[in-house]
């Protein structure tokens, strides 16, 4: 016996130490997950010498708890079997564990089993088996419909209600997983869209380079040809080098046209002769006039010198940014007062477009890729672009900063494979998918399940409350007890007491007060539940009545 006590002490100390270690690490969920099985195992070790059947039942309950997430239905059925044995054998130690075990196993079935019909069948079977075991325990006693109802309600609370809560949590977890997967797909699609927009912007720039550099290189070839012809007579000693310059520049022009011509966007228009004014004050003023003619209340503020001497790439970027920004205002805030500000300093220029937030009645379809293209255009020009909502005023704002001299993009700037972080306020909200028919159907289904679960909980709690109320009403008052006389018929006594009460019987039998020989006794709760009354009958007549448990 001392050996078992020592083993129990060691196991208990180890379990407590492990639980404390997990709790200190913040893994409280895992600590709780192991707490009840560990307690059951420790109790089983303690009970092995005197109650081997109880120890086996506790070990079975611990194994069922540990396996409930891997084999939930098997674990529930095993726990139900242990509960049935505990009820029939009236093992107090085992019964103290089996009720929380039943709750946790039932919850695991509802939470883990994907097929709701299979989960409901398993929960119904467990409820039926435990209810039947409770009735078998009361075999030979007078059990009325009220007692059966109490037994069923208790088992519903222990099995069906936790299972229903687990099913609800399982549906919620599946919905959250689907939502996370959907968000991941949308994020991936957004990144791919931005990458496509940047590649299109680079292709557009390549087309512009084809138009601009092709013209310049054509002039170089022309000048080199003239130089080669003149050196034939004027400077024969350098004629060979001049001819090499002419042929090399001609080859470079052909190669540039071949490579950049491929990159020209399909349907791109050839240059219209506006390169000389693109991005200048005249060009921006024309864009503002077009927007005003379209009904946009727009004002222009130009601060600093004109951009006629600026790099053509910078001026094209200015034209593109202003044009796209005003188009966005037309689409997303039609008729909103807008202010366009262009500020030129010695080293850089800043474009600012601010408009009052005024969304249209029907949101226009938008991919949100225009801003991604503008960011790429600004980055390739050596600048940056931000867009979003001003937190102070709530108005929409777009700001682009470009150098007056074209700089190469920094190495830390985003690439095609690593998109620039898009501003959430300016990206298109995918409310259409979130408010679509599937979303509404899912919400209706969730609402129906919640109403059904709430109705079941109300019914169960109402039944339990009625049972408790009925128990109070069935208590026998001292006045009624005095009305019952020796020799009264068993039928009359039952009318006054409500019949045999299993709770009172259990309490009365625990008093170990022997009943008179040759009698059959019934028990009733006394008013206040401080003691019980016993009524013993012989041949249908009351032979003796007692008060048991009165202190």
From TrEMBL:
Transmembrane segments: 29-46, 53-71, 83-106, 118-136, 148-167, 449-469
Region (Disordered): 402-443
EC id: 2.7.13.3
The keyword Phosphoprotein belongs to this UniProt entry's keyword annotation: yes
Start and end residues of each Signal transduction histidine kinase subgroup 3 dimerisation and phosphoacceptor domain: 201-264
Pfam family, one: HATPase_c
Cross-referenced Gene3D superfamilies: 1.20.5.1930, Histidine kinase-like ATPase, C-terminal domain (3.30.565.10)
GO molecular function, one term: phosphorelay sensor kinase activity
Residue stretches making up the Histidine kinase/HSP90-like ATPase domain: 315-405
Keyword annotations from UniProtKB, A to Z: ATP-binding, Kinase, Membrane, Nucleotide-binding, Phosphoprotein, Transferase, Transmembrane, Transmembrane helix, Two-component regulatory system
Catalytic reaction equation(s): ATP + protein L-histidine = ADP + protein N-phospho-L-histidine
GO CC annotation, single: membrane
UniProt KW Transferase keyword: yes
Domain of life: Bacteria
Matches recorded under InterPro entries: HATPase_C_sf, HATPase_dom, Sensor_HK_TwoCompSys, Sig_transdc_His_kin_sub3_dim/P
Broad EC category: transferase
Protein name per Swiss-Prot or TrEMBL: histidine kinase
């Amino acid at each position: 016996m001392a050996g078992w006590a020592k083993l129990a002490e060691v196991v208990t100390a180890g379990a407590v130490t492990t639980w404390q270690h997990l709790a200190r690490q913040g893994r409280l969920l895992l600590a709780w997950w192991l707490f009840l099985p560990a307690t059951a195992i420790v109790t089983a070790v303690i009970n092995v010498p005197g109650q081997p059947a109880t120890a086996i039942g506790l070990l079975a309950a611990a194994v069922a708890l540990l396996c409930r997430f891997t084999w939930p239905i098997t674990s529930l059925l095993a726990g139900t079997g242990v509960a049935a044995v505990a009820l029939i054998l009236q093992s107090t130690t085992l019964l103290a564990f089996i009720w929380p075990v039943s709750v946790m196993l039932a919850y695991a079935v509802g939470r883990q089993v994907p097929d709701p019909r299979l989960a409901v069948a398993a929960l119904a079977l467990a409820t039926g088996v435990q209810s039947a075991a409770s009735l078998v325990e009361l075999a030979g006693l007078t059990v009325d419909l009220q007692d059966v109802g109490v037994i069923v309600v208790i088992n519903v609370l222990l099995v069906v209600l936790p299972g229903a809560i687990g099913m609800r949590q399982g549906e919620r977890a599946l919905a959250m997983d689907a939502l996370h997967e959907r968000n991941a797909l949308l994020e991936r699609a957004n990144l791919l869209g931005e990458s496509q927009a940047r590649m299109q912007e680079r292709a557009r720039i390549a087309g512009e380079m084809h138009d601009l550099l092709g013209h310049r290189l054509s002039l170089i070839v022309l000048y080199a040809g003239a130089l080669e012809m003149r050196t034939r007579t004027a400077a024969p000693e350098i004629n060979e080098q001049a001819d090499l310059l002419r042929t090399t520049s001609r080859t470079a022009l052909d190669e540039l046209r071949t490579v950049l011509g491929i990159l020209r966007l399909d349907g791109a228009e050839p240059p219209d002769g506006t390169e000389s004014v693109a991005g200048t004050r005249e060009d921006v003023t024309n864009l503002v006039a077009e927007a005003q003619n379209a009904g946009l209340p727009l004002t222009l503020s130009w601060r600093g010198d004109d951009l006629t001497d600026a790099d053509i790439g910078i001026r094209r970027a200015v034209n593109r940014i202003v044009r796209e920004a005003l188009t966005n205002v037309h689409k997303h805030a039609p008729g909103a007062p807008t202010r366009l500000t262009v500020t030129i300093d010695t080293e850089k220029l800043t474009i600012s477009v601010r408009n009052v937030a005024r969304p249209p009645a029907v949101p226009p379809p938008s991919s949100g890729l225009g801003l991604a293209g503008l960011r790429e255009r600004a980055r390739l020009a050596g600048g940056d672009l931000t867009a979003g909502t001003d937190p102070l005023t709530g108005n929409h704002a777009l700001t682009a900063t470009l150098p007056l001299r074209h700089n190469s993009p920094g190495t830390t700037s985003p690439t095609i494979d690593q998109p620039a972080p898009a501003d959430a306020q300016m990206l298109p909200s995918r409310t259409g998918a979130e408010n679509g028919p599937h979303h509404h159907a899912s919400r209706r289904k969730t609402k129906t399940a919640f109403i059904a679960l709430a109705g079941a909980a109300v019914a169960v709690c109402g039944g339990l409350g009625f049972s408790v109320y009925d128990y109070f009403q069935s208590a026998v008052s001292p006045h009624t007890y005095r009305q019952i006389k020796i020799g009264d018929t068993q039928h009359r006594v039952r009318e006054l007491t409500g019949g045999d009460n299993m709770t009172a019987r259990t309490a009365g039998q625990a008093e170990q007060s022997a009943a008179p020989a040759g009698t059959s006794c019934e028990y009733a709760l006394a008013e206040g539940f401080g003691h019980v009354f016993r009524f013993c009958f012989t041949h249908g007549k009351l032979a003796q009545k007692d008060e048991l448990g009165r202190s």
